[in-house]
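User: Batch of two.

Assistant: Item 1 of 2:
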Amino acid sequence: MYVYLIYLLIFFAIPVGILGWLVRKDLIRYKRTILWCLAFIYTMGWVWDWLSVKTGVWRYDSAETVGLWLDGLPVEEFVGFYLLGAFLLITVFLAIRRKLKHV
């Protein structure tokens, strides 16, 4: 069972989809800034996770993942936390910014 993937879809993909639709104009407006943020998050996040797994600080249960691994990290980590997690933070920030702008 792909518990990790199901978890990511429920708690990241659904909220990102809803918030992304609500702030779609801002996502287009700030696309370059968002791409730089994603590049930073991918770089730092990958190094952090890779070092943590290699030094034994934490591990991923292979029975709970899809089974595709990139240098010791499950592919769900890249898609879920680095992409969807980053977009969740970005869309929450843009939604709060939009709300405060209209107050």
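Item 2 of 2:
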Amino acid sequence: MAEWIGIGRRARRCYGFDEVALAPGRITINPDEVDTSWKFNGKKFSVPIIAAAMDGVVDVKFAVAMSKLGGIAAINLDGIQTRYENPDEVLEEIAKATPEKATNLIQKIYTTPIKEKLISKRVGEIKKKGGFAAVSCIPQNAAKFAPLAVEAGADCFIVQSTVTTTQHISTKYKALDLFKFCKETKVPVILGNCVTHNVTLELLETGCSGILVGVGPGAACTTRGVLGIGVPQVTATVDCAQARDFYYQKTGKYVPIITDGGMRRGGDVCKAFACGADAVMIGSTFARAEEAPGHGFHWGMATSHGNLPRGTRIAVGVSGSLEQILFGPAVVDDGSQNLMGALATSMGSLGAKTIKEMHFVEIIIAPSIQTEGKLFQASQRVGMGK
């Protein structure tokens, strides 16, 4: 599979969403009769999409709205919601900052300590309003935050970092024991992020309930530019899904794979499922919702790093309601609205009745898929030419 890139050194060719396409099969299905749901820890969700735990995307109001529409939204326990009693004022300040000052302002804002009482408060607010409370934090805070969140009623705990492994070496601090954490935490645990087959297998052995796949593909993330690491999402998802299937064959336990980041429109979401994802995690598209707390702005989870920010604040604008983004009617031509309609239509065209059947559709390498016949769109910067 690998190609020579120099004397004695080979590299494997990997693929992203823009380089592949899905080939229709020999049968088609009425889109109204496909099943787009997925199961997480035995619970069925009609929308196989998780809103990313990013401060410009998810707050209490957004989490409740997403729950009522059939999906999941994760709130960031390391972020503004747990640092400030009145996070809306801070979020508005970030939105008003000039591009030149935005990163420095975000770095300053995130130096305010996390208030543990706000962890319980935010989870309680979501539960009081009937929402599914998914929460997320970095490994360094997980052992301390998990008991607080679970006691307040959290339904799911996500441990998330740029790159997550079961073997983290440090002489400066004690690494989180993922095996112990998954065993002792009384709610399902999702671990991320990873992009390789072997690491996925090792993470699955911890007893987790889900795996996040993706390093650096997010719209506001600059990890790939700053650190030079990452694997394009098509290849990453295929490799990690193969690890999931191997683990299932060996143990009988099926643990869902969640492709996290890099999906700008409905077609990307459909390709992620074809590559083996059971669900997807999306940030920037939801940052454009009227309900999102970022006021049309979006920034990466590592933007606030004091010495080496690995994200930036981007203006995404406000395109419509969360319901429009998920179910339409779409009023934009770029595929960023009615994601569920796009998924159902794609599944019907491919002859896949369920998400798991999507895992077996034909994927082709198609470098011209974005440009073939699209000269007018490109020259006028509309549709696929944006």
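Residues 160 and 192 are 5 Å apart (CA to CA).
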